Amino acid sequence: MKTVVARLGALLCLVVAVALVAGCGASKTPPAESKLKVEKFNSQQGLPHDYITALVSYGTQLWAGTKNGLARYDSVNWQVHVLKNTNALGSNIIENLTVADNAVWIATDNGVCRTDGTNWASILTGSRARAVTAKGNEIAVATAHGVEYTTGGAFLTMSKESAGLVYDEVQAVCYDANGKLWVGTRAGMAMLSGTAFQTFTGPAQQPMGSSLVDIPPNPPSCQLIGNNVNAILPYKGKLAIATTSGLSVTDMGNQWTSYTGAHKKWVQRAGQIFEEQAPGNSPLPGSSITALAVAPGDAALFVGTNKGLAVLKGDQWLDIEPRLSTVPTGPITAVAMHNADLWVGTQNGLYRIEGIAALVSPTGS
Description:
Elements: H1 2-24, E1 38-41, E2 52-58, E3 61-66, E4 69-73, E5 78-81, E6 94-100, E7 103-108, E8 111-115, E9 120-124, E10 131-135, E11 138-143, E12 146-150, E13 156-158, H2 160-163, E14 170-175, E15 181-185, E16 188-193, E17 196-200, E18 204-208, E19 211-215, E20 229-235, E21 238-243, E22 246-250, E23 256-259, E24 263-269, E25 272-278, E26 289-294, E27 301-305, E28 308-313, E29 316-317, E30 332-338, E31 341-346, E32 349-353, H3 356-360
């Protein structure tokens, strides 16, 4: 009898052991990663227009610029500001939004205004403002004829002729971590030094007749990936520079890291000059960088392109599309992180990617 009991006990132990191995073995299929919820907003949900031009996070609200007014979102409702109800707005066409000196600065098709959410003030009128930034008494406005600049008095036009600006069509203005004013134009960068600009242009190629001419950088250390600049942001103690040819992250000195997507480049072959498709050095979905935003603590850089969204975390690009329930596609017009969510502007609506903070945190992946 004891022998039978012993055999039964041994058999039971064997069954339990097999079950444990089967339950804990390496061959078990891991659970699929959960999708991040993506919600879309457009004029049907309260936006004044579907075409989003700018986004910023300010206090407890997300602010969105559109082709027909400004809106702010308190997580429940959209409050819309247009000329009819907000006198300080110079135009319903919002060009750019910036948060500086505890206020939202609004660049419009007819000047600049600012607000702390309650009080509004008109800052500049009579000119299309492409971008604006401020620091203390200083205000810099990007225009088609240079930088409108003030240190507290009347605005002064700083152009190529009057202040050595590299090019008069200015598209971006930004103060770096050291308080220096940087300007992005359609033909290079510039830094304000006193009452004049120091200019920076990267290497380029220009077809001239039957020849392809190499244009050297100025200064020689400048390796800007493209000279047509769309946006500038401070990032990791450096500048992130969005151009129509790719993204550069740089100290504007000797440290340059540039990223490109698949793009066209000039080539000369058999006496002919033509454009040829070339591969990029990164998984950027588009060749032209259209928008930038930085996660808190410089945890990540959100990059909008002419063909979709990309996320740079450290020196690695995240494969984000498989994690999204809906993927914003086409030209990205604006990006901003608000609380734990990423907001992505397009020409046909606004997307909220919920919980992206976990993905870009130091422990996320």
